[in-house]
Amino acid sequence: MGKVEEFEELRPLLFSIAYRILGSVGEAEDAVQETWLRFDASPTRPVSVKAFLSATVTRIAIDVLRSARVRREEYVGPWLPEPLLRDPYEDPARAAELADSVSMAALLLLERLSPLERSVFVLREVFAFGFDEIASTVGRSEAACRQLLVRARRHMNEGRPRFEADRRERQELAKRFFAALSQGDVDGLRGLLSADVQLVGDGGGKAPQLARAVVGAENVARLLAGVYPLMMRVDVTFEPHEVNGRPGAVFRDREGKVLHILALDMLDGRIQTIRSVINPDKLGHLGPVADAWAVDREVRRTRRRAAGGSE
Q: What residue stretches are annotated with the RNA polymerase sigma-70 region domain (predicted)?
């Protein structure tokens, strides 16, 4: 097998490692490409190609994450990971674990960790790398890596929900949610939301966005029921789709361009968090991106007309 074939066979794994460390599709793809360039330029063949490539992409991702921290601190409004509609790395025996580790909730918990803690956690807990491999990857002793993992686990466990719905229950809840959303059914929405539900939007200052998270079943239900039927009237459509291994939907304008993504987190049979990614910089990997400002203006005009106001 040649270099290209070996690399392409491992590309899904490399992307999945980088994405979990970075929370960015674009940055993960760049890290994978840089890994290829270093592999292609290497004059000798590594003993284990998988170990060499995994270590290389992890080190690149750590460097990128360290530089990205400053940008994220200056980010306008809440920062959410770039939505991932499909994880290219498939392992049927560990499908549920892989889906859990790529959820937006898990990626946001990973944001609490230092770059080294995050990398050790991803390599060990998600991809089951040995401590000897992890130690050589991050340049620390095995004992130090074990300590990094202990700290990472503690931070992750502190933020994890007590109980999450199973896959079938999540899908049924999402189906009812999107039906109520499209109908503007306040009561129907309220009945599906937890009392302390949060609606969080990520526009990055580049698209219409919530000034802050909206909290509480009544507030969230009324906001959603007031906005989404108006969006349907200006020909916005949506298709249910898994987002980061959880129920969600892709919203598009009348030309079929991606407007935004909704992702749902469930807890105890209710929707706990609704995350909306509308920052165009985070949607380009999904296809042509809509002009969210233009859609927002059209929605506002439609609302004024419905209320009997003037143009």
A: 7-69
Q: Is residue 216 part of a domain?
A: yes
How high is the pLDDT of residue 73?
79
- Identity of residue 303: R
Of 76, 109, 137, the residue that ends a domain is 76
Question: What letter would DSSP give residue 284?
Answer: G
Cβ distance 12 to 90 under 8 Å? yes
Alpha carbon distances (Å) from 39 to 2, 43, 47, 127, 220: 12, 9, 13, 21, 49
CATH number at residue 11: 1.10.1740.10
Give the largest Cα separation in the chain, rounded: 74
Which of 22, 42, 76 is the C-terminal boundary of a domain? 76
Q: Say how far apart CA 205 and CA 77 lie, in whole Å.
A: 7
Q: In angstroms, what CA-CA distances link 277 with 251, 259, 263, 280?
A: 10, 9, 8, 8
| Token duo for residue 49 | 């190609």
Taking only the tens place, the pLDDT of each residue in 17-45 is: 999 999 999 999 999 999 999 999 988 88
Domain residue limits at 295: 167-306
In the chain, the amino acid numbered 10 is: L
Question: Is residue 108 pLDDT above 70, yes or no?
Answer: yes
